[in-house]
Amino acid sequence: NEIKIFSPATVANVSCGFDVLGFCLDTIGDEMVIRKTNEKGIKITKIVGADLPFETGKNVASVSALALYNDAKPDCGFEIEIYKNIKPGSGIGSSSASAAGSVFAINHLLGNPYNATQLTGFAMKGEAVASGCEHADNIAPALFGGFTLVKSTSPLQVLQLPTPKDLYVTIIHPQIEVKTSEARAILPQDIPLQNAITQWSNVGSLVHALHTNDYNLISLSLNDVVVEPYRSQLIPHFDLVKTEVLKAGALGAGISGSGPSIFALSKSKTTAETVAKAMTQVFTNTTIAFNTYVSKI
Ligand code: HSE
């Protein structure tokens, strides 16, 4: 009647795949405890580690839980405890971790009536509260694991992609605020044809590289000519971080989700740790506080 879960952080977009590609971190994430109650409804009873709303209609975890609950109409209620390790607004899927975690746990307590795609659909309702739009590129990898591609949101179709076994991610989170809504608002509505060609060639080759364990092709595909030129201006030292991590041996780097976190992919844990040092070095003598993470994907 109670479950304790790890709800992972995720990196959306993965450079070229704006709103469609994402991957899940193996070791960085929140914890949640979800409990069946005799009293009906959804209640958030505890939030540790972040200042987030307790009202059922305002917290992403309860909004997504409620979407599932109203569909399943069970004969009980649920209470949710949230232990946040992922800072809200960091760009590594903080809201998605809460949204995905609550629906995963409630589904488990109900005997798993829903599949991962259906859970993604419920969790998107919570994500919409946080970011103003129902994108699934953080939620899908949190629920499916590894790399995912959101083929379509209506109808919802998620493809699970393979993950090469030595692939690691390094993330630096500079503690400045970048709101997803603002990071979306600065994007142009039209893409020059030549940029579109470059972008879809990169998405295609990245997907192929994941299927064929081709680390060199991963490296060549991690480019974003559509979104990064605009959003990188919101992130201090972005270009320098990118230059330094490539020198340190990373396969490539980009903005994690809508930022401000920057991610880099590496082949091997040792390289990912060297990359973390290179990222740290860039921010060490600045006034900006930061955290770095290394995780298997
Ligand atoms: N794909 C979304 C964006 C992810 O880049 O706006 C937000 O976390």
TrEMBL record:
GHMP kinase C-terminal domain segment(s): 207-283
Subcellular localization(s) per the UniProt record: Cytoplasm
Isomerase recorded as keyword: no
Pfam families: GHMP_kinases_C (PF08544), GHMP_kinases_N (PF00288)
Primary location group: cytoplasm
Gene3D superfamilies: 3.30.230.10, GHMP kinase, C-terminal domain
Pathway: Amino-acid biosynthesis; L-threonine biosynthesis; L-threonine from L-aspartate: step 4/5
GO molecular function: homoserine kinase activity
Keyword field: Amino-acid biosynthesis, ATP-binding, Cytoplasm, Kinase, Nucleotide-binding, Threonine biosynthesis, Transferase
Reactions this protein catalyses: L-homoserine + ATP = O-phospho-L-homoserine + ADP + H(+)
Domain GHMP kinase N-terminal, first and last residues per copy: 66-146
InterPro entries, A to Z: GHMP_kinase_C_dom, GHMP_kinase_C_sf, GHMP_kinase_N_dom, Homoserine_kinase, Ribosomal_Su5_D2-typ_SF, Ribsml_uS5_D2-typ_fold_subgr
The EC number(s) this enzyme carries: 2.7.1.39
UniProt keyword S-adenosyl-L-methionine, yes or no: no
Signal peptide limits: none
Protein's job: Catalyzes the ATP-dependent phosphorylation of L-homoserine to L-homoserine phosphate.
The family this protein is said to belong to: Belongs to the GHMP kinase family. Homoserine kinase subfamily.
This protein's name: Homoserine kinase
Organism: Olleya sediminilitoris
